[in-house]
Amino acid sequence: MSFDLLAPHYRWMEALCAGGQLQRCRTALLPVIQPPQRVLIYGEGNGRFLSKLCRRFPAAEITVVEASSVMISLARTRLQRAGLADSHVDFIHADALTWQPPAVTYDLVVTCFFLDCFSAAQLRQLVPLIATAATSEAQWLNADFQIAPSGLRRLCSRVIVGFLYAFFRRATQLAADELVDVSPLLAAAGFTRCERHTFVLRLLFCERWQR
Ligand SMILES: C[S@@+](CC[C@H](N)C(=O)[O-])C[C@H]1O[C@@H](n2cnc3c(N)ncnc32)[C@H](O)[C@@H]1O
């Protein structure tokens, strides 16, 4: 799996397919997040969420775990261009499935359109692993795609998500091929959902979980 080839095209493809909706979904809960001291972001991508986070919480110490070196380079460039080069961001070029996070360190965990990259079996290992890095009162911001609950929206979201997996599996060799509901895994890791919003015919959601 690698997003390196896709990374330079990710921004314009997102703009073409979703306009500003993905960014709206990623950042919708930033205003209600309690100011974090240490943030752990998985699969940040090209830095669009990161730059908003740095702007809002300039004192936060941020660790980004990202498997694509090209994405990391794009995120660094984005921070520099936004005048945020002095932000406290540590980029770790690693596979989240094998990288061992420091225990009980972060009071905010962020997974935006990241957990959909993994199969159910992988998530059963990954979510508890990530949770070991969270403090006892940590927040977890999660945004992703979902299949709408019923009706025409359900059909539309099935078609769109099916197309996206077909595309990403081809473009990045992604192993996953369907969305997995991570709610039971987050709950098992001691988190409770506090807030949830949906966007674009309920195709997208963002949630804030709290320990
Ligand atoms: C679908 S993109 C989402 C990017 C961004 N978070 C967003 O909201 O658009 C998934 C990101 O996760 C990264 N990623 C996928 N699998 C990973 C893994 N096993 N370890 C670390 N990063 C991974 C990819 O390189 C990519 O940047």
Question: How would you summarize this macromolecular structure in one to three sentences?
Answer:
The chain is of the alpha/beta class.
What's the gyration radius in Å? Answer: 16 Å
The SSE string, one letter per element, is HHEHEHEEHEHHEE
Portion of residues in beta strands equals 15-25%
Q: Mean pLDDT score, rounded?
A: 97
Which features would summarize this protein structure in a list?
211 residues, binds S-adenosylmethionine, 7-stranded mixed β-sheet, 7 strands, alpha/beta, Rossmann fold
SSE topology:
Layout: H1 7-18, H2 21-27, E1 38-42, H3 48-56, E2 61-66, H4 69-81, E3 88-93, E4 106-112, H5 120-131, E5 134-145, H6 151-172, H7 183-188, E6 192-199, E7 204-210
Parallel strand pairs: 1-2, 1-4, 2-3, 4-5
Antiparallel strand pairs: 5-7, 6-7
Residues 1, 3, 26, 43-45, 49, 65-68, 71, 95-97, 112-114, 117 line the site of S-adenosylmethionine.
Note down, in words, how this protein is organized.
The chain is an alpha/beta fold and 211 residues long. It has one domain: Rossmann fold, CATH 3.40.50.150. The protein contains 7 helices and 7 strands. Strands 3-2-1-4-5-7-6 form a 7-stranded mixed beta sheet. Strand 4 (106-112), helix 5 (120-131) and strand 5 (134-145) form a beta-alpha-beta unit. It is globular. The chain starts with 6 loop residues before the first helix and ends with a strand. The relative contact order is 0.17. The mean pLDDT is 97. The chain binds S-adenosylmethionine.
